[in-house]
Design brief:
The chain has 112 residues and is of the alpha/beta class. The protein has helices at residues 13-23, 66-77, 103-109; strands at residues 7-9, 41-46, 51-56, 85-90. A four-stranded mixed β-sheet has the order 1-2-3-4, with helices on one face. It starts with 6 loop residues before the first strand and ends with a helix. Pfam families: FeS_assembly_P.
């Protein structure tokens, strides 16, 4: 199983790290694991005007917590001065599966 890291299209490595750290504070309410380690964050783009686009997926199409996760992402990134606005794009391809999870998430959920 290969862990899938989000694609972060930001040249400043320190800012990349800060954004990922903030996204790791967003917990999937159903599974109790952060969205980065679950592999739900597919891509992060930061544009020159301070607009941050976060492309995510959910573990299932019928997940009732999509709005909660979206709000938590916006809240988590709001304290980063370089980010003026955050939009969350929900995407379904490629479909999420457990192989996207980090080793930490698999261990925490008891998945081998």
């Amino acid at each position: 199983m290969a862990d899938e890291s989000p694609k972060v299209n930001i040249e400043n490595e320190e800012l990349q790290k800060k954004i990922i750290e903030h996204l790791e504070t967003v917990i999937d309410p159903e599974l109790g694991i952060d969205i980065v380690n679950l592999g739900l964050v597919y891509e992060v783009n930061l544009f020159e005007d301070g607009l941050c686009e976060v492309q995510i997926t959910l573990t299932t199409m019928g997940c009732p917590f999509g709005d909660v996760i979206e709000g938590d992402i916006i809240g988590a990134l709001s304290s980063i001065p370089e980010i003026k606005e955050t939009i969350v794009k929900l995407i379904w391809y490629p479909a999420w599966d457990p192989s996207r999870m980090s080793r930490y998430a698999r261990i925490a959920l008891g998945i081998r």
